[in-house]
């Protein structure tokens, strides 16, 4: 019985033996992962790593012949390198988004990740082990630029033998000159003398560019300047630069820059250059222009002699011809259309791998700072307007403004209510001391109104610029490199000492937020004007505070009134009070600020749109926000976009017509973003959230038939006792007919200030034979525009349009129904 029981197992093992042997043999076969590319590099992205290194990504485009002899196919390849030397060269050569030819050797790599929907995805790219920048212009030397696969070390020079070594001078000289002088004082022509090991080499040089670089480390108040220049050997017989080694390390040279006149340069001499990097900046006085002495460190290994490079060029050409032949003979490759590379958003998940936000930003703002809040939405959160708002906030970052609402003028209050209706990102707090407001902001994060889950909170002043892309990268690194115990430790991160008196930008881990909300002794005493941060710093020696990890980071800096002296690795820049300065910082850093949401396109792009303009009589002041919340809730339930607009109403004063005409302007502006717009006046209330816009359109399609329905773009009610349509609620399709119709309505000047205004203009235009076919005017007001006296439970929308103010009726319907 025992033998019978084990017989199937023995047979199974015997059956698997050939397969295992086959796999073992395959594993012993030689393998190769080698990629060689040469093409145009573009779209560089460089990130500073917490470890101090840099990682660079760029796109490399290669051209291939198409079946059509007159066309070529362009393919794009992602290249990534963790070599700091490559990152520096890419930053120099592609910093202004110019294209240049690059030779890359490396290997294929595939990254596996889980996107925001929980699906496993793969991203394939090339690890660039060796990167060679080829000449920018045909007129320049055709010797390739230095290889940046490995950064040279002093030992690399020590291993050379012989009394001297020939360094082949390559494409361009790059130098960083430190001083208080301005770069345009430098002469465009100068003499360059290299002094090393007793040998002097002289070159006549021309400045190609000179830009302000980051501040010198030892001289924070003296900006440094990056100069790029090309040089010509001073004598035809000395095209090479001789460096005597004699078994010793030679890496430091003195460089003398002397202005010369253009006539001293013989353009017939061979052009050479050498890559140099500053070793110890030597400050020069403001009165000494140009700089007369700078120290450099030679960065590159010697390039091979010219004849070797020629053989390399020939070998590369043969290699590409052979590889291209087999590539295009393969049936698995088909021609692709010429197109730019896809955005990284299609490859990299926007949302966190688990639920919740990595960072919730709590912004301290003043009530009247309308323009400042709009500036932050645009520059920090990629929200230039609210025409296409997030239907679902599923990004890695979330934010709220917190204002102190005291006694404000009626005009400011109306504008504030409009802003809240449009963006839904403002929380009003009563006036209170600094630390109590900070605590209230943290309490919001932990309340039912805050996010369900988060990992870090940031207290931010509204005049601080933040590079959230870098902040998130740092948080990712911390999470990856920390143990479970370290991740649960309370952290307080920012420029802590500099922000004692005013919190401008500090990050608190979720654990610390919980401690502050549950341990009163961590907070300042009642009546104190101190901030939470200053109280913690003042009591850092106490046992209650000592467990908090305090990260004092000098990358949180103050604004020096120009972007050029801001350190390149800065994470936050405080005290930026002018809107233009925010834009200058953005232009300087070109950050990739994270998206607040995934802007996926729904099957039907439907927008629910209303007015957020409050008239001077303040009739709808109290009812405005509840009415907006009613429509926003409906839109969120059915995955529609919600749009509230006030600017188009405010601008009617410039056109000399009634404010209500802003409705037409707002619809014209918004309609291109959607397939359908569902307009509701502020005094219209959705009573039945279960009815979808698609259900209404389907009902019209069934009533009219497919052919007739396809001709219609406007669906609007004409109540049975009214002389014209009611334009308080209607559906409008994104079509040529609709845009032409709206233009025609806009031109009916006789109705600009005539009673019924835009409603009469829409009615008159829709009655004309030219426009009648595109408008479906129906009398059944129960579909989506029911008056209160006709309301039956289950109706979709009730529209209050009394002769007086409808606010009480609207609030009553929202509270208890009808």
TrEMBL record:
Biased composition range(s): Basic and acidic residues: 139-151
Pfam families found in the cross-reference section: Glyco_transf_34 (PF05637), SSB (PF00436)
GO terms for MF: glycosyltransferase activity; single-stranded DNA binding
Cellular-component GO terms for this entry: Golgi membrane
Spans annotated as Disordered: 139-158
SUPFAM superfamilies linked: Nucleic acid-binding proteins, Nucleotide-diphospho-sugar transferases
Protein name according to UniProt: Glycosyltransferase family 34 protein
Organism: Basidiobolus meristosporus CBS 931.73
